[in-house]
Amino acid sequence: MTTALAALLAVCAAQEKPRPLLRDFLGINGHTVQFRPKLYRPVCRLVRDYHPVEWDLGKDSDFETTFPFARNRVDWSRVYGSWVAEGFEIDASLMFANFPKEAWKDPARDARAYGRAFAKAFGPSSPAKLVASAEIGNEPGFYPDAFYRTIFEAMARGLREGDPAIRIATCAATAGKSHDYAKSLECVKGLEALYDVINVHSYAELEPWPTWRRSFPEDPRLPDYLPHVRRVLAWRDAHAPGKPVWLTEFGWDATTKENEKTGDFTKWVGVSDEQQAQYLVRSTLLFLMLDLARAYVYFFNDEDKPSLHASSGITRNFEPKPSYHALAHLMKTLGDFRLARVRENRPGELCVFEFSHESDARRRVLAVWSPTGSGRKAEARVPLEGARLVRAERMPLAAGEVPAAAVPVRDGAAAVPLEETPIYLVLER
């Protein structure tokens, strides 16, 4: 079978299989002892943790781990146990950010031993049953490609030995050349038996330094937001068909503070709280259109700092931002639904996505919005195709009663006030 034929068959299979339910798709990025599971449970049930390897090993790669305790005495059974008790499924990103190449005394031996110990202590088959999946590295761009492959192969083998049921993911990957924030998928080519998931990060960056300006998710000018994900999916179809792809980081910074007067971020550009909420929700809906299995929002909390990745939280000092309320409403509205079809996807004009309930064929929801970033308002005529409009809701930005949208129905079609804030039409056939 040729590579082109294999890719075509993979695409056809992806088109035929049902999309994931939203509750099995949307996740949040947390961080160790800082994450508050009760606070974030209304938003999702999937959580990704930045798990520092050096907390477990210190500066000695051959340190004999003492799980469930990290070497710095953090009790992972208490940390992760509190998350699982709230119903979260945990993906641990085993980070090497503060573990330089030179720290590995015997890279293959020590990485394998660490992976084995981690999976044995925390994997789905362990008595604790705390961690469902593990990523081998977050963004280990400072590791040379050959060295990352050595660590990846050894740690993957160790994870498999420790618990065959734990799902193994790559670090943040790219279909192109390796760079500071992602490793080329060529680094793991040929090792398909050792991993289960391909991992990708993507941000809607329109301009690089010094502004790091991000745009709205549907912006056709973006070179590396949806296009980056599509390139990774195409690589998967050609070289690792059937492997799920997880988008484990996407997000926008939204701060109330003025820019810093000195330093690297004087010209940095964020978005408003309202835009962050709009763009996170709209991105989630767009990602459901692709053949992604999961998407994790970056980040859970921030301290309202006006710089890159420093105001990406859906809470600010653990107080919900508008994005928190918007995502919680999205989960409440569509958690038991999956994308059935894309009715309209016209850049700069109109998006209408139709969702079907997991078990009740009579129940449908339409998400309608203007795929723009200019504050555009218009009206869209949306055929109901014989269904009855039960209610129309505007994506909320605050706690309390969800704002209703005035949507008159004429001649079997809804006249929807078109905004950049999604409106949900709840239907019944």
Structure overview:
Strands 1-2-3-4-5-7-8-9 form an eight-stranded parallel beta barrel, surrounded by four helices. A five-stranded antiparallel β-sheet has the order 13-14-15-20-17, with helices on one face. It is an alpha/beta fold and 429 residues long. It has helices at residues 3-16, 37-40, 53-57, 76-85, 107-122, 145-162, 226-239, 273-289, 322-334; strands spanning 26-30, 46-52, 89-95, 133-136, 167-174, 183-184, 197-201, 245-250, 294-297, 301-302, 315-316, 319-320, 337-346, 350-357, 363-369, 378-383, 388-394, 409-410, 413-418, 423-428. Helix content is 26%, strand content 25%. It is built from nine helices and 20 strands. It folds into two domains: 3-336, Glycosidases (TIM Barrel, Alpha-Beta Barrel), CATH 3.20.20.80; 338-428, Immunoglobulin-like (Sandwich).
Mean pLDDT over the residues: 95
Domains counted in the coordinates: how many?
2
User: Can you say what the CATH homologous superfamily of the largest domain is?
Assistant: Glycosidases
| Low-pLDDT stretches | 1-14
Number of strands: 20
Helix content: 25-40%
Assign the structural class, choosing from mainly alpha, mainly beta, alpha/beta, alpha+beta, or little secondary structure. alpha/beta
CATH architecture of the largest domain: Alpha-Beta Barrel
CATH domain class of the largest domain: Alpha Beta
Count of helix runs: 9
Q: State the major sheet.
A: 8 strands, parallel, barrel
User: What is the N-to-C order of secondary-structure elements (H for helix, E for strand)?
Assistant: HEHEHHEHEHEEEHEHEEEEHEEEEEEEE
Distance between the termini: 44 Å
Form type: globular
